[in-house]
Amino acid sequence: MNATEEKEKEEHIIIMKVCIKNWGFKIYHRFILSIRKKPLDFISGVFALFGGWFTLSEIEQSVLNTQVLLDVFREHKIIVPLFAVILMLFLRGKKLEHPEYLGDKDTIISLKIADILHIKDSAVVIPTNTTFDTIMDRSFISEKSIQGKFQKKFYGTDFSALDASIKQSLDECFPNCFEVLSDRKRTNTKRYKIGTVAKVTHHGQHYYFLAVADVSKSGKTENVTMENMTKALVGLWEYLSKEGHTEPITVPVIGTGRAGLKDGTFEDVVHETIFSFVTKSQDEFVSRKMTICIYPPSLSEANVTWERLCDYLDLQCHFFSENRKRLKASRVFGNVVE
Fold it and tell me: The pTM is what?
């Protein structure tokens, strides 16, 4: 076995381990966690299924003078209880997506636990650097980042078509909004502002490359702060309101992965993503559905629970209409102070 085959084998093993870990997290979060929190409810549910089975058995004996259901239970004393347990798991299992309407609008904001590169029914946001580099040599773009995974999955090792699409989009929408860096030789020299967006279309699906951080000439991310995360989100909503396709948009929790956010947490970024979208949606249409996609291992490593994130989303959406009414009233009935 040569070096290339060994490397490919190691990559396959790593991918398999990640997939197993992701599925393990999803199974635990969807099924096991609900049992751990309310074990008595689960047990009572299983016994309720047994009660229903024997009730149907008595009805069968009384009406039809047969005992098929009772015989099935006697002949499969392990399978029937196991089926009851599995059925209750699915009945009480939690969904891995939590959608909520934004006040009285038709707009939906959703939290979803998934791999963002598996999303098919939505446009997808790919966090990138302000020079829009795609080079992966010497880990300039990490293979473990969302951008790195996207490039390997859809473009393999030749990124010339991707570079051309990014350049075309930037030239059309941001023709003179960059500074030229003099310290770059093997990477891009044009640095755009944080919040700049480049649209890439691959097999009919739109991907929006969003500049969230500067990068040094060696590939080290710089200025990864909450202030810049906010700027990036504001730039994204502004771009979509003018250049978007009114389609659903899926956003990762930007800055919390390989970028290395300095002064904020995973929860802070989720909150800011929801809040900034709600704020923009008060005055302009951005998208009919905005989903924050949470990578399973990221949530397990963060100091926050799924329930807490969902509670914040519910509060923001619930009070959206009330806040709009108060804002409108202040504009109509407010008096100028002399």
Answer: 0.78
